[in-house]
Amino acid sequence: MKIPDNFIKKNRRIEIISNDGNPLRIPGEWEFTLGDADMLVAIPDMHMYVYNSPLDNFKYGAKAMLHFLHHLESLKSDMEWDGKKLRIYQLGDMYEYRFPGPRGTGNATAAEIFMSHPDYSLIANLLRDMRAHHLYGNHDYENRHFPGFRMAAREGQVLLEHGFVPDRWQQFSDPGEMLWEAGQFFFLKLREVNEFYANLLIDLNAIPRDNTYSVGVDSGKRAKHGYPAHAGYEDPEGDYSRYLEHYTARLKQPHDSEPFRIAIIGHTHRPYMEKVNGGRQLFIDAGAWTGGRSDFAVLTREEAAICTYRRR
User: How many CB atoms lie within 10 A of CB 301?
Assistant: First the structure.
């Protein structure tokens, strides 16, 4: 099936940002790429944090997320009536555990985060009720201890992961690295200092309450819907080419079962889609739903697209 009209064309808040605004046609020989699913939606990094904290930049896109999830809920119901299956994946970093908890007792917890605002509880409940599949990322790595969370998933010939390729922080970005735990402890202490001074400035009326004041974290107040130039993602001196190289190589590797045709990841917060290995396989970076972005990837047996969901 193609991407349903009642999913994209009849929702003016959805815009395709990949492939010059058009769905990418899946080659006919990839017909069974999704296994027994008819459609897959991948929601990338959210980094949901305590709502009233100046470190939380998910809140600016929270209403759009709620609107989107209700739209997905309606689509899922319609598809089930037609005997079709919609699978929803959240690609990791749903919660931001790398920031201090509201009581100053170490990292924030999922309960503290989703109870910090009614919208956050609704989002978590909607994902649960739609039986969304959850992967864990480097910012919510603790979720590996909970039922239902896993590092990677396979849907037919589609590989889904958060993506742990080392980025500019190198070992600090990969929970499998020796220095990761020490690096995250350092970042937590840095955030505690950031938050202290942010709240001090708020009390002095020097910055507004919803302003973010933290190293490496923007406010997310300004919506970002752009799609990066190919050269920017593929630049060997940049931050992203290593993801493309890593998954291009992984897709080429032989597997015991069916080979992978498509890799879908998050982690970079930068949407991107490119055919690799001579056009025989497809790499999709779904982008992010935080820091001003509101991206997601959609895949059917016939089409693929990266979309943005406008806040209004």
Answer: 19
